[in-house]
Amino acid sequence: MRERKRLVRDLLRARKSVMTPHERFEKSHRICAHLTELVQDGETVMVYSSKETEVNTEPLIAWLLERGNPVVVPIIVKEDVSLRLSYLRDNAVLVPSTFGVPEPIGSEIPASGDDVDTIVLPMLGFDRKGGRIGYGAGYYDRFLERYPHLRKIGIAFALQDCDALPVDENDVRMDCIVTEDGVVYSRGGSDGDRRHGDT
């Protein structure tokens, strides 16, 4: 399984590498627009701050902040392969940090996974059954083991779809998967009304 995942990750990285910056920009905006239809008033949303080759989450974060939804961002803790959480009040406080991921270093407002309703996750690949494959470090897998109640929305570009995704029973499945084409998977067929505690 480990070797299969490595090969699939290599394939998916190669797929992503052919996208131009303009394509990433345009498709990221479409993905974020679809996400705005899934978030409810007052919902606390944990969303990653994106690196260059990922779905750009800046439009979503800006929309959430403008709307008044509490926003939580993860901070990578390499020492114990975990995520520390911080509320985000302003995109401007994000600076490149671990692995080049923008984080609110020096401007943290501590948050807990118990505060979060919905988490928006990056994905290297996905299937149409809610399967997700990440980058291999396991930060989000460990986090979701601790907070299984969260509504899990995975986002990716459509070209990251993988029919033969190597996942097993221990891999956490998404409740919803969104690409530039819209919602391509939703557990139970519902995408807008799932709240934590439903998973």
Helix content: 25-40%
CATH architecture: 3-Layer(aba) Sandwich
Q: Give the DSSP E fraction (strand runs of 2 or more residues).
A: 15-25%
Order of helices and strands: HHEHEEEEEEEEHEEE
How far apart, in Å, are the first and last alpha carbons?
Answer: 26 Å
The Rg value, from CA coordinates, equals 16 Å
Low-confidence runs: 191-199
Q: Would you tell me the structural class of the helices and strands?
A: alpha/beta
Give the overall form: globular
What's the name of the CATH homologous superfamily?
A: NagB/RpiA/CoA transferase-like
- Total helical segments: 4
Name of the CATH class: Alpha Beta
Main sheet specs:
8 strands, mixed
Number of domains: 1
Number of strands: 12
Question: What does this protein look like?
Answer:
It is a single chain. It contains four helices and twelve strands, in the order ααβαββββββββαβββ. The strands form three sheets. The chain has an eight-stranded mixed β-sheet, sandwiched between helices. Strands 4-5 form a two-stranded antiparallel sheet. It has a two-stranded antiparallel sheet with strand order 8-9. By secondary structure, it is α/β, with parallel strands linked by helices.
List descriptors.
Rossmann fold; alpha/beta; two-stranded antiparallel sheet; disordered C terminus; 199 residues; 25% helix; 23% strand; eight-stranded mixed sheet
Topology:
Layout (H helix, E strand, L loop, with lengths): L1 H16 L3 H16 L8 E3 L10 H10 L3 E7 L4 E6 L7 E2 L5 E2 L6 E2 L6 E5 L2 E2 L5 E2 L5 H8 L4 E5 L20 E4 L2 E5 L13
Summarize the structure.
The protein has 199 residues and is α/β, with parallel strands linked by helices. It has helices at residues 2-17, 21-36, 58-67, 139-146; strands at residues 45-47, 71-77, 82-87, 95-96, 102-103, 110-111, 118-122, 125-126, 132-133, 151-155, 176-179, 182-186. An eight-stranded mixed beta sheet has the order 6-3-2-1-7-10-11-12, sandwiched between helices. Strands 4-5 form a two-stranded antiparallel ribbon.
